[in-house]
Task: structure prediction
Amino acid sequence: MASSDHQGHPPPRRNLVPQAAASLSPALAIEGVSHSFGARKALDAVSFSVAAGSFTALLGPNGAGKTTLFSLVTRLYENRSGTIHVLGHDVRVEPAAALAKLGVVFQARTLDLELSVMQNLVYHATLHGMGFASARRRALEVLAQASLAERARDKVRNLSGGQMRRVEIARALMHRPRLLLLDEPTVGLDIASRAALVEQVRRLVAEEGIGVLWATHIIEEIAPGDRVIVLHRGRVRAQGDYEDLLRRTATEDISAAFLSLVDDGAGEAA
Result:
C-alpha cells in the first residue's frame, strides 16, 4: 500500500486518480463567510479553498472557530453571508448535491455504541440511498482499508478510542465522497493512535485523490508540504504552504510560526 513520504508530498500513485487531477473545481471553496452567536462573532469574513487531492490543515487554538466553520459547511448551521461550495456545488443552493460529495468526522464521537461496526456503517449508507447488499460490500471494503475487517461484527463499545476513530473515517467514506472534513479527530488518543490516524488519512489523499480539511490545534500533525490555514478568533491570519508560512514569519518551525501569527500583533490573512 502506498503512503506519503512523511514530508507531506504524495507518492507518484496519486497520478492514477484522474477525477481528482481533472477536477476544475476545488474540493472546498469558502468566500467571505461570517457567523455570529448573538453579539459574539465566531467567524469574520473567512475565505480559503481546499484543492482536490490535497491535505490541508486548519490550524487554530480551541475557540478559534473551526467547529463553527464545519457546522456551516455541513449545513448544521446556515451561512447567511458569503458562499460555501463543495466540488462546485453551493451548499445553500444545491445542498443535496454538495453533501453527497462530503464526508465528515466530527470532534464529538457519533457512533452508536450498542450497534456493531457493520451496523453503524450500513445504517449510514442507507441514509445516502445505498441498498443493503451494496452497503455491506462497501462496508467490507472501507473496513479492510482501515485494517478493521475482522472487527465488523463487534459492538463499537468494545473498540479502543483509536479504532472508533478509524470506524468513523470508514463510515464517512461509505458513499465515496470527494471531500473529507475532520474536526480535531485525534483528541483523546494516545501518540501511537494519533500517528496511525494521520497516516491513514494521508494515504486516502495519496491513493484516492480525496481532498482533506484536517482541523487541529496539534502542531505535530502538520508536515512540510502541507497547505496550512491559521484561524484565530474567527479570522484567517494566514494561509499558504507550510514553507510559505515559515518564510513569511521568518521562523524555523511551524510552532514558532503559529505563535507569531496568533499573537495580538499578527497581521491579516494573506
